[in-house]
Design brief:
about 130 residues; 3 helices
Length: about 130
């Protein structure tokens, strides 16, 4: 019984929990992840607004619209969706192999994180021409 008790004492002395440095590293990682998420969320939210505005153009007869009419239609939708990263003049308007008008957009967003560290995100979306 005494041997058993001595072994329990030795085992409890060897056991250890999380160290302060370990907890700081985990907390720092979580804070950094939260910071990045909070900083890039608005860029993705605006991307989905751009994507929605471009896909909404498919409800209109794009093939019969002029370039200016397509740009104006996008600008109206972009204003409603509070899109500021891209304008109608930045759209790429082309015809596909079946002569359907395709509207696409490519742009970049530079989001500062802290000090001289930033994140550059490339976005691209297009109407499907239907």
């Amino acid at each position: 019984m005494i041997k058993n008790r001595q072994q329990q004492i030795r085992n409890s002395q060897r056991q250890g929990g999380a160290t302060f440095i370990g907890m700081l590293l985990v907390t720092g990682s979580l804070v950094l992840l939260a910071l990045v998420t909070i900083k890039i969320f608005p860029a993705y939210q605006e991307y989905y607004s751009v994507q929605t505005a471009i896909h909404a153009l498919n409800k209109e007869p794009l093939s019969s619209m002029s370039k200016k009419e397509i740009i104006d239609a996008f600008n109206k939708r972009a204003d409603a969706g509070q899109v500021t990263v891209i304008k109608g003049s930045d759209l790429i308007i082309t015809k596909n192999s079946t002569s359907e008008t395709v509207v696409s957009a490519k742009y970049q967003v530079l989001t500062p994180l802290f000090a001289n560290v930033s994140i550059l995100i490339d976005f691209a979306t297009a109407s499907d021409g239907k």
